[in-house]
């Protein structure tokens, strides 16, 4: 078994492709609202344009997992790299009225890209390095969010739409050139229980009886709701309360996530067993962070920044831990489809954190809203504890 394969040259190339692919998004997230405002679009119109990306990506992920399973990660990646160049070029060549459709098309490519890369990494690496590969993939996808917003503002103020257009074309072409010969499997791994005739809906029916998927999805959904509420409302919370600085909070939270995913990637379990204590610990870290955030209005900025560390740490390791476990626990015949659905559940949590927690904050307060999120995390931790014994027994029998 190859030792250190997750950091080998072929895998590093995949992480570079991931970094380049996701580098366009932070720039778009800044420039599109600025262009919309400059051309007289309302906040509601801008919100619909930006939301089309997440909703499309979320809805297509289960289907994307099935397609990747059928045709293999490399073929799917090559097709969408070409589509990505065209879509990024359309941002500069189109009027603002077309941005809803373009954002939806970009969500389409992202759904397939994330599944192709993650499934390809899982199929390439030995079992004991799966968690490291997934952690490094997530790290590569997150790095653009650290430098992208600053780059976007500089581009917009320096050259406006022309600079934006040039950056999109450069990123699209660089991603295509780097990724076309990516060291991914041309076909997906198939198990002995493979049933090619199964439809996506037939595979999704397994969710009713698949305890591993239900427990992991519940934990990820609730954590994502809290995380989405933090990212969306932290600026308004700091403005209303007069405590802390939203930009510093988000930068610190992102830095913790980046450092944790790199430094602790080997600590994420990758043995196929269910580690309930590890998962509960991460959920409690997020819970404590959310409650500290709720109390920051009374105890000041240091408590708020401590919250960013706790939430960033928990979110950094929770997704790779759950994702890695599912790659072992799910049946081979429906693994890729259900992994796609698991990622969609994570996206759904962020959307719910935006849409559901906003009215809660309006009805009560931002502090109460974050307390409600912390309570939901405690409930998810209880679900993991109660289900942990059965999953652990199932893991032992599998071994």
From TrEMBL:
**Where does the UniProt annotation locate this protein?**
Cell membrane
Q: Which InterPro entries match?
A: MFS (IPR011701), MFS_dom (IPR020846), MFS_Exporter (IPR052714), MFS_trans_sf (IPR036259)
List, alphabetically, the PROSITE patterns matched: MFS
Record-annotated membrane-spanning stretches: 12-34, 46-64, 76-94, 100-122, 134-158, 164-182, 212-237, 243-264, 276-299, 305-326, 338-357, 369-388
Q: What are the alphabetically sorted keywords of the record?
A: Membrane, Transmembrane, Transmembrane helix, Transport
Bilayer disposition of the protein: Multi-pass membrane protein
The residue ranges of the Major facilitator superfamily (MFS) profile domain are: 10-397
Q: Which domain of life is it from?
A: Bacteria
Cite the PANTHER family for this sequence.
PERMEASE, QUINOLENE RESISTANCE PROTEIN NORA
> Entry's NCBIfam families?
opine_export_Sa
Q: What is this protein called?
A: MFS transporter
The beginning of the lineage is: Bacteria, Bacillati, Bacillota, Bacilli, Bacillales
